[in-house]
């Protein structure tokens, strides 16, 4: 057993719920009848989404505007995860940056590590105790196919996603036999606000793109069945396997050449 059947007391918490994959996760879970707690920075977007989901699917939707890069905000959400009956947690909050690492603002890079890795780890820790006690529950952590390879000019982003992937797989194995699972979602390029924020359009390959709705459906199926890792789409699967199994001595020069052809720095 992993994500239990919907019930009044089986809330799924979704961070980063105001747009992109997070919003589509909310839509897919609401369609299946799960009560939701939506978390993101932008209240107006959360309110709009909550209204749509409540009207369309007749489910209870609560919004909680928080900036999870702030320690006090994380503690507030973690307290609810520890004390309430939570069926699922989708750690979708995160962002990326791109550029030459030594030239990027350190404060922004540190915030990226905090949100992509530290917040995800803290919230997962807060949720698991109650899930294991109840013998059911599922955590979804958003990684990326970038988890399987170092990405020059997105060094911190790919490093945080490698952490998410490794952490999620390790905890998934620790939970064997408990009825609880942790699933790492590793999408390829997804046409969302993310690429705009990261200034990373050159890293997107149109043939590899999978829609946010399709990514969310694959992720929810993974939560329902307790999968360890989900990589939506044929091309992202090929790319992730290439990153896993290609020697770094070949992979990094290939990435350098790819950057050159896409108009980015090659050295």
TrEMBL record:
UniProt cross-references to SUPFAM superfamilies, sorted A to Z: NAD(P)-binding Rossmann-fold domains (SSF51735)
InterPro entries: NAD(P)-bd_dom_sf, Sc_DH/Rdtase_CS, SDR_fam
Transmembrane segments: none
Gene Ontology annotations for the cellular component aspect, listed alphabetically: membrane
Keywords, alphabetical: Oxidoreductase
Record-linked PROSITE patterns: ADH_SHORT
A Pfam family that the UniProt record links to this protein: adh_short
Keyword Zinc-finger (UniProt): no
A single GO molecular function term of this UniProt record: oxidoreductase activity
Similarity remark: Belongs to the short-chain dehydrogenases/reductases (SDR) family.
Name recorded for this polypeptide: Ketoacyl reductase
Gene source species: Mycobacterium sherrisii
Organism lineage: Bacteria, Bacillati, Actinomycetota, Actinomycetes, Mycobacteriales
């Amino acid at each position: 057993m992993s994500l239990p059947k919907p019930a009044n007391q089986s809330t799924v918490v979704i961070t980063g719920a105001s747009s992109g994959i997070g919003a589509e996760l909310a839509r897919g879970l609401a369609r299946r009848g799960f009560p939701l707690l939506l978390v993101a920075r932008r209240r107006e977007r959360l309110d709009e989404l909550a209204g749509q989901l409540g009207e369309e699917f007749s489910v209870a939707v609560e919004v909680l505007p928080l900036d999870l890069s702030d320690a006090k905000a994380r503690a507030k959400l973690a307290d609810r995860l520890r004390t309430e009956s939570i069926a699922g947690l989708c750690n979708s909050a995160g962002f990326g940056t791109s550029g030459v690492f030594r030239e990027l603002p350190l404060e922004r890079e540190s915030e990226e590590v905090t949100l992509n890795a530290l917040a995800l780890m803290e919230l997962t820790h807060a949720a698991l105790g109650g899930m294991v006690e109840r013998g059911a529950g599922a955590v979804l952590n958003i990684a990326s196919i970038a988890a399987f390879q170092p990405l020059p000019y997105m060094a911190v982003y790919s490093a945080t996603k490698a952490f998410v992937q490794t952490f999620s797989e390790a905890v998934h194995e620790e939970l064997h036999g408990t009825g609880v699972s942790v699933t790492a979602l590793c999408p390829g390029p997804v046409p969302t606000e993310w690429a705009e924020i990261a200034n990373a359009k050159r890293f997107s390959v149109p043939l590899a793109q999978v829609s946010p709705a399709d990514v969310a459906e694959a992720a929810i199926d993974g939560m329902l069945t307790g999968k360890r890792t989900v990589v939506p789409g044929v091309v992202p699967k090929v790319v992730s396997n290439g990153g896993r199994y290609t020697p770094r001595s070949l992979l990094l020069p290939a990435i350098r050449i790819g950057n050159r052809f896409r108009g980015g720095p090659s050295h």
